Amino acid sequence: MSDNFYVNLYMQGRKEFRPKLFYELSLERLVPADNIYRKIGEELDFQFLYDSTKKYYGTEGQQSLDPVVFYKILLVGYLNSLNSDRALLQYCGNCLDIRFFI
């Protein structure tokens, strides 16, 4: 890291983190090319879900969750044996590869 991020404290190599206001961050660069969720996203086309679920969505009121996002979240739960909605959403929020997949 550059000196903008850390300040050396003493000669022990200990550093103090000084956060910046803006960071340049890309999930695509952070998730490895051989990641299982990246491979699933490349191999499967989830666009068919829009036509398959169209009849279940209303025309009035607030917009619902995107059916592709919903299905991907359920797929993550199945692949990781997560049967609690809260545990599943917490898991999806903590993992960068799953955020990239969704």
Describe this protein with a few key phrases.
102 residues, mainly alpha, two-stranded antiparallel sheet
Topology readout:
Blueprint: E1 6-9, E2 14-17, H1 27-30, H2 36-43, H3 48-53, H4 67-79, H5 85-94, H6 96-101
Antiparallel strand pairs: 1-2
Protein name: Transposase
Domain Transposase InsH N-terminal: 26-101
Organism: Moheibacter lacus
Task: Enumerate the strands of the largest sheet in spatial order, edge to edge or round the barrel.
Answer: 1-2
Shape label: elongated
Helicity, in percent?
40-55%
Poorly predicted sequence stretches spanning 5 or more consecutive residues: none
Mean pLDDT score: 85
Order of helices and strands: EEHHHHHH
Count of individual beta strands:
2
How does the helix and strand content classify structurally?
mainly alpha
Largest beta-sheet characterization: 2 strands, antiparallel
Q: What count of structural domains?
A: 1
Radius of gyration from CA coordinates: 20 Å
Q: Give me the number of helical elements.
A: 6
| End-to-end separation | 29 Å
Structure description:
With 102 residues, the protein is mainly alpha-helical. It has one domain (27-101). The chain contains 6 helices and 2 strands. The protein has helices at 27-30, 36-43, 48-53, 67-79, 85-94, 96-101; strands at residues 6-9, 14-17. It has a two-stranded antiparallel sheet with strand order 1-2. The longest helix is centred in the C-terminal third of the chain and has 13 residues, at 67-79. The chain is elongated. The two termini are 29 Å apart. The mean pLDDT is 85.
